[in-house]
Design a protein that fits this description.
With 163 residues, this protein is of the alpha+beta class. It is built from 4 helices and 4 strands, in the order βαβααββα.
Length: 163
């Protein structure tokens, strides 16, 4: 089973159909609207714009587990993201990324180490996982790693599907 086989709903209901990303590189990010790291939405959107035509997408996954920093409804989250940061990338339903109610998507992701060797629970909002076109986890980045940092950009470029 890969990330592309996991069932998860979209932000506004209905299936997010992760299978549609098979063959693409995907940056999965647990997001929140009221966090000190929320300005990372701007960099995530720039990545989306820069690489979308080359088989890449950002996938935002709202989560309210970190000090209640994503309290909004689906409509509030969507409105905030689009009007404040011009977000066009897809978003899933709000889920739990840690604990006994951890969504199966994150069950597949958290075993991957980041550059410092951290595995396991998500530490904070905006932790990033780069998924390769075959559905394997290619890289994990800490919440503080900016979306347009050299290490994220290099990993994305290396993971893009062959054209």
């Amino acid at each position: 089973m890969t990330v592309f086989d996991v069932e998860i709903d979209g932000l506004r209901g209905g299936s997010a159909d992760l299978g549609q990303y098979r063959g693409k590189a995907v940056l999965v990010v647990n997001v929140a609207s009221k966090c000190g790291l929320t300005p990372q939405y701007a960099g995530l959107e720039r990545l989306q714009e820069r690489y979308a035509e080359r088989g890449f997408t950002v996938l935002g996954v709202p989560c309210n587990q970190f000090m209640g920093q994503e309290p909004g409804t689906a409509e509030e989250i969507e409105t905030f993201c689009s009007t404040t940061y011009g977000v066009t990338f897809p978003m899933t339903e709000k889920i739990e990324v840690n604990g006994e109610n951890r969504h199966p998507l994150y069950g597949l992701l958290v075993g991957t180490p980041d550059a410092e060797g951290h595995t396991g629970d998500i530490r904070w909002n905006f932790e990033k996982f780069l998924i390769a076109p075959d559905g394997t986890v290619a890289a994990r980045f800490s919440p503080q790693t900016e979306p347009e940092s050299a290490e994220v950009v290099a990993a994305v470029e290396k993971t893009l599907p062959a054209s």
